Amino acid sequence: MATTGLPPGSDADIARVTETLGMITPRWNVRILLTLGSGPLRYTEISDKMPWLLSGQLHPKLRALSDAGIVVRTEHTSRHVTYGLTDRGTALLPVLPVIAAWAEEFLEKPDEPLSAIEHVEDSLTLLTRRHAAAILWVLKSRGESSARAVARVVMPDGYWTNIYPPLRQLAEDGLVASAGPGQPYRLSSSGEGLGRVFGALSAWSAGRTLDSGSQHPVWGNADRASRTAPKHWTSHRPRIPQPAVPTRPARPGYGNLFSHANPARMQTAVRAGGARR
């Protein structure tokens, strides 16, 4: 992806953040990471804490997280194998409450309260749309931009009108806005509020401390006033279904999932954001 007009290093930065989102977004991955946050566990112990997973679903997820360098498999003996977070996996946990704080601030309030995990999962669904991170990056850097100008950066080798489907999806999700057909696109208030989220993801993916996210060259000004008033949008059912009642005794729950320090909450006069999945 070309990065003409964006700060130096944006290409690699966007790629790292997109890769990070791809690691943690697959269904149940956030719950696995939080389950391992209290320390290494045997496979059966993890399975007992996630009784809604069908037989055979947990192992490939643990293997994928291990391949990503977030989880480590330790074989103590042939009969004693545990899974735990690597140092990188442990460093990723404080990013999750940043995402949850954004969801609580900007996503709609459903009829039934959602857990912090569901806030994170719903947010990740929006941020992993095709080309979402790159489009949001361009609009944050340039302010108002035409669809053609966004396409030159995000998909320089393709026909520029191919940018419309992802742009319209982000508009439907409430992350970008436009005054109408042929008018430039810009971030909505909820899109502007993603500064701390992308700053934290960028810092973690680059191996820096999360505090450095506030100095991000693109997303560092998270509290800047939004350029557009948010619009109302249709509510959808939550993406994550209620887990089925376990058929075997379950071990104690996750406890305080987000015991890590939460960042200062973003202030906004009107709620906005993408549709609940």
Automatic annotation (TrEMBL):
InterPro entries associated with the record: HTH_HxlR, WH-like_DNA-bd_sf, WH_DNA-bd_sf
Protein name: MarR family transcriptional regulator
GO molecular function: DNA binding
Domain of life: Bacteria
Compositional bias segments (type: Basic residues): 229-239
This protein's record includes keyword Transcription: yes
Residues in HTH hxlR-type domain copies: 15-111
Keywords tagged on the record: DNA-binding, Transcription, Transcription regulation
Extent of the signal sequence: none
Region (Disordered): 229-260
Keyword flag DNA-binding: yes
